[in-house]
Structure formats: structure tokens, C-alpha cells
TrEMBL record:
The keyword Transmembrane helix applies. Keywords: Membrane, Transmembrane, Transmembrane helix. Residues 117-152 are annotated as: Disordered. Residues 125-152 have a biased composition (Polar residues). The chain crosses the membrane at residues 6-24. It comes from the Bacteria. It comes from Pseudomonas oryzae. This is Uncharacterized protein.
Length: 152
């Protein structure tokens, strides 16, 4: 419900404008492609990209950015710590190997911010694509092949 006095209504206009700019800068420009909470549950890794041009385009405009932030913290692109920025070919993913190890899977073409360890978490880049387990059989290292015997 709006106040009846016109000066109070005009006073609400800057507040509405500020709210719109805050939304534009923090939600409309940045897109969250993936989030993954650490096994300990205290840190979240966010894989983000810019959706459109910005006055602060980041380290890799239109590329991927990985931020680490406490799990409770909103707006990781604003308050989190940048640990990786690059242009990746194809899909990218983030995965925790342990509570203190994060792996970024990305076929990196141009790295703007190399993987950096922050908050006690080692960040590693894995640029090799994951192989599908389907039709990808390899013998056990200790297995010995025995030739088939022909029996009459």
C-alpha cells in the first residue's frame, strides 16, 4: 500500500531504482551454471558466467568463473573469492574430491585466472574430458590372458 503524501511517494522512487540496479548487477548479469557444496558443508563452489555486458565484466567476459564462498553467503560473485576464470570449450563442471579439494573439469582455451587455492581448499584444473564407461573396457593390470585351447 502506497503512502498518500506525494513527497513520501517521491522518496520511494530512489529506493525502487536502487533495488532495480542491485537486481540488475547481481542477478540479471551473472548466471549460475552450477553450485556444489563441499562434503563438510561449510563452503560452496559456484560455476558462473556473465549473461550480458557489464560495467565490471570480470576476468573473462563471457567466460566461466569459479567462486568459493561460505555456504550461507548470498551473491558469491560479489562476496566470494574468485579461484578460476577461463574460456572453456564445451561443457564445464565442478566436483569435490574431498572437503579440501575441488576439481574443475574444463577444456580451457584461454585461462585468465589460473586455479588458485583459497580458504584452505586446493583447486585443480582437469582439462581431460571424462570418458564414458560405456564401451570403454580395459583389462585388469594383473589379469593374464590365456589362449583358448582347441579341443577335438
Amino acid at each position: 500500500m502506497l503512502p498518500k503524501h506525494p513527497l513520501v511517494r517521491l522518496g520511494l522512487l530512489p529506493l525502487a531504482w536502487f533495488a532495480f540496479l542491485f537486481w540488475l548487477e547481481n542477478f540479471a548479469i551473472w548466471g549460475n551454471r552450477a553450485s556444489s557444496q563441499s562434503p563438510a558443508g561449510d563452503t560452496t563452489a559456484h560455476l558462473m558466467s556473465l549473461n550480458s555486458e557489464s560495467s565490471k565484466p570480470g576476468h573473462a567476459p563471457y567466460g566461466l568463473h569459479v567462486f568459493l564462498a561460505p555456504a550461507w553467503l548470498p551473491l558469491p560473485q560479489r562476496f566470494g573469492e574468485l579461484v578460476f576464470a577461463s574460456y572453456c570449450q564445451g561443457e564445464a563442471a565442478i566436483a569435490w574430491q574431498a572437503a579440501d579439494r575441488l576439481v574443475i573439469r574444463c577444456d580451457a582455451r584461454e585461462i585468465r585466472t589460473p586455479p588458485t587455492s583459497r580458504r584452505g581448499i586446493a583447486v585443480r584444473l582437469s582439462s581431460s574430458p571424462r570418458q564414458s564407461p560405456v564401451n570403454h573396457w580395459q583389462p585388469e593390470p594383473n589379469a593374464q590372458e590365456t589362449p583358448a585351447q582347441n579341443t577335438p
